[in-house]
Amino acid sequence: MIRTPAIFRAPVTTSHERGVLVATCVSSLGSFYTMSVTSFALPQIQRGLSIPEDEVGSLFALLRSGTIFSLVLAVAADRLGRRRLLVASVAGCALCNVATAFSRSGLEFAWLQLGARFFLGAQILLAVVVVTEELSADNRGWGLGVLSAVGGMGGALTLLVYMFVEYLPYGWRFLYVVGGLGLLCVPWLWGSLQETRRFSEHQSQTAANAASGPAWQPLRDIVRLHGWRLAALVGVMIPVSVILEPGIVFVSKHLQDEMGYSPGQVGLLVGGCGVMTPLGNLVSGAVSDRFGRKPVAAFVSLLLPAAVALFYNASAAPAMGLGLALLFLSIGGLIVLHGAIATELFPTAFRSTASGMREALGTVGASLGLWIVSLLYVATGSHAVSITWVLLLAPISPLVILFLVPETARRELEEIAPDEVGA
Q: Quick check: is 421 in a domain?
């Protein structure tokens, strides 16, 4: 009998933990759909809204910046609770997607999707916080891997719908109508998802001080009390995000405009390689539970630029396909590892705020990467060459992980970052 390798076997979980995973996975489906739909449909959106070539990177930088403002919802979740902000974010993202289907210009499209990204960021970070706080220390990485892998099915839905974009009513606009279906899940999520035990306990212990201080107090206190860990988070997130965002945003455009692929061919190639993303989710979570977050995160941080370099510089289809597969594998791993590190490094009082700052840092890095590519395009005349130059930043993140970030795997959250009295 062939036995499943240990890292792929589901660990023993309680019914409560399984219920948490189901609810958070459902809440994440729409976020991953929204995250990928614009990248897939970029050529059609660009033509439909008459967006000039030299404004593409800047436009994406604007809409990508929406997740910076997710920090507002993250800070609020450290005062009001994870549950209500998570459900509200699902509804907000769906509504913005529906509105995007009616956009009349590139600027209007960007502002509506900026709003969608605002709620999208909160969906992702709050689901990660809920799973981190509710699953046992031995299973946190595995649970985050499952959350990302199942949530990533939203990206698979994007691909499935996009393959028929040329035949859908209203073309690319129909894609955003599909993105609004998350509204149907809101009543069920509200009834199924409960507040996390750790937040409830923390709230009851600090009830006397809960209403005191300004709304942004968690943000002020996390900088004051955990500034060195935030600095390490900057070094981990920014360089990787500068590389990752243009590397994934221009995939469809590179294949269609420079390699001559049709939308259907893009769908088949991306679909075939895209199965590596959930594999990266599951493997990185399980392996980091066993061997540690630090070595696994450092390795995947180096795998990403290698994959980007191969994809954008290969001329043969097999090499380009390998580069794309490794790109999706590394993205899957980084989603889980960055989420785990950021939430595990900080106490309950600031865990949602820290996760929001991780999302904000990733957004700053992503927008910076897109702006840099736009500027380099003026000199190089090629998005592929411009993206390749950005890879000079590749060594920074793994060095920070190895030398400045403490190990968090298989340790109780209170051991990694004890709650401060009165925080």
A: no
